[in-house]
Amino acid sequence: MVERGPGGTIRHIDAGDGLGASLRTLPGAGDVRAVVLALDGAATGGAADVEALLAVPQPVIAAITGACAGLAFELALACDVRMAADDATVTADPAALAAAARLTRLVGEARAKDLVLTGRAVGAADALRLGVVTRVVPAAALAGAAHAAAELIASRAPLAARAVKQALGRARDLAPAEALALEHEHFERLITSRDHREALAAFFARRPPVFTGS
Question: Closest Cα partner for 43 from 97, 81, 93, 4?
């Protein structure tokens, strides 16, 4: 489902059949500012879907309900923001080594080993405490909360949002000097953009900016 709001277009995707095909359309969808991926524990597909999700340039919010395990958990870890219903659970799959690596980056080696080796289900509150998810909301409010977060992201300058996603995603794998060089590269590119000029003009005119992604 596609929703066009005042801040920009938001794509809502269910993790079911055809997920990979839907995700692979996003790199070329310049009008899409943010993505909400609904994960209810019933995800079907495989590693190709995870790779397609990792290649999405727009910020992606996971909306987690039910028992999030297997592929659904791998997809959740590949998202930029993970929001969970208060009655959701997450379970790490000991066989999913790529997911284990991403989980380690999120929660640290000791906690990742505990979750992966035991394969125990973790409730939403504990998942938040451990750092597996970033926000927990009442189940009835999850869809609205995820959409509100997507709207906020969509209202930002899209080029900057994509640059932030890339820089933060790579920061832990880079030496400090390399991370700073990447930030400087993004800064030099963004400061010459039309959206940067629009942000300055809107600030001095005391009006909301209208970003075009250029």
Answer: 93
For each of the domains in the chain, give its residue range(s) and CATH number, in order of start: 2-154 (3.90.226.10), 158-205 (1.10.12)
**Backbone torsions φ then ψ of 63, nearest 5 degrees:** -110, 105
Tell me the one-letter amino acid at 39: L
* pLDDT score at 126: 95
The 10s digit of each residue's pLDDT in 8-55 is 788 898 887 688 888 998 988 888 889 999 998 767 778 888 899 999
> Which residue in 162, 136, 140 sits closest to 214, CA to CA?
162
- CA dihedral of residues 112, 63, 34, 21 (deg, nearest 10): 90
Q: How far apart are CA 212 and CA 30, in angstroms?
A: 9
The token duo for 133 is: 């998810």
What mean pLDDT value characterizes the chain?
Answer: 84
> pLDDT of 159-203, one tens digit each?
888 877 877 776 677 566 776 766 767 667 767 777 778 777 777
DSSP the chain: -EEE-SS-EEEEEESSTTHHHHHHTGGG-TTEEEEEEEE-S-----HHHHHHHHT--S-EEEEE-SEE-THHHHHHHHSSEEEEETT-EEE--TT-HHHHHHHHHHH-HHHHHHHHHH--EEEHHHHHHHTS-SEEE-GGGHHHHHHHHHHHHHTS-HHHHHHHHHHHHHHTTS-HHHHHHHHHHHHHHHTTSHHHHHHHHHHHHTS-------
